[in-house]
């Protein structure tokens, strides 16, 4: 759909469950997970522009993973030529990479632990993920080829859901080392860990603004899940959803002028948008009787 909620198009069009979509960096392709062939696999399609009121259709569908197991959470490399994802095989999660034609599939982690949720650095040279290979969930970093796998955290708590800052000099992650989940930030070598949220609620699912100056996250510090925004150093934490419903999984638009999140304030899960440049207005974008989740923004291309 458009950023204002118009022109909502069904791209995958089947009775299966299609989830975790992500646009390629140039906006011309879409990768997602689907169970249309039995278990979950990673699929890619090309977005074909054909004008008029309906602007896109999905063509040239390819099953990229095409293996026994459950393949989830695909992530494009910054070049758009490579995709990483997690795969559950024989009760063990590993991180795989594959190119956009389904070739050169490789197990990057090859450990006895659960290796999950890979994220590329902005320059495409490193991947950050979390793993319990040492007995509990910790943050790891490796090269894009799977080399030099290094543990960045070391404690008995859960350290999960890492991602790089846009400038590639910081990593944010979640940890419950103080009893509840907080958002932490650290250097790429694991040094200088700072608790950014530091309150009694659970603070989770953090995401950077494109310029790296702001972070959005969800928190239940006020009794229900809300979407908050703060500065990179943790200052000026503001509740931007501010509703007594469930508001969760906020992300910035690619221009940094909007934050979208999932809310059930109208009785079912819908996608809402918070316009930073338009008097901070909140708008329901999807408006239907289904459950709308897994938000991603497209980079515009010619």
Distance between the termini: 17 Å
- How many strands? 24
- The share of residues in extended strands comes to over 45%
**What average pLDDT do the residues reach?**
89
Shape estimate: globular
CATH fourth-tier homologous superfamily of the domain at 1-107: TolB, C-terminal domain
CATH-derived architecture of the domain at 1-107? 6 Propeller
Q: What is the spatial order of strands in the main beta sheet?
A: 1-2-3-4
- Extract low-pLDDT stretches: none
Whole-angstrom Rg: 19 Å
Structural class: mainly beta
Tell me about the biggest sheet? Answer: 4 strands, antiparallel
CATH class of the domain at 1-107: Mainly Beta
Query: What would the CATH topology of the domain at 1-107 be?
Result: Neuraminidase
Explain how this protein is built.
By secondary structure, the protein is an all-beta fold. The protein has a domain of 107 residues: TolB, C-terminal domain (Neuraminidase, 6 Propeller), CATH 2.120.10. The protein is built from no helices and 24 strands. The strands form 6 sheets. Strands 1-2-3-4 form a 4-stranded antiparallel beta sheet, with no helix packed on it. Strands 5-6-7-8 form a 4-stranded antiparallel beta sheet, with no helix packed on it. The radius of gyration is 19 Å and the shape is globular. The model has no long low-confidence stretch (mean pLDDT 89).
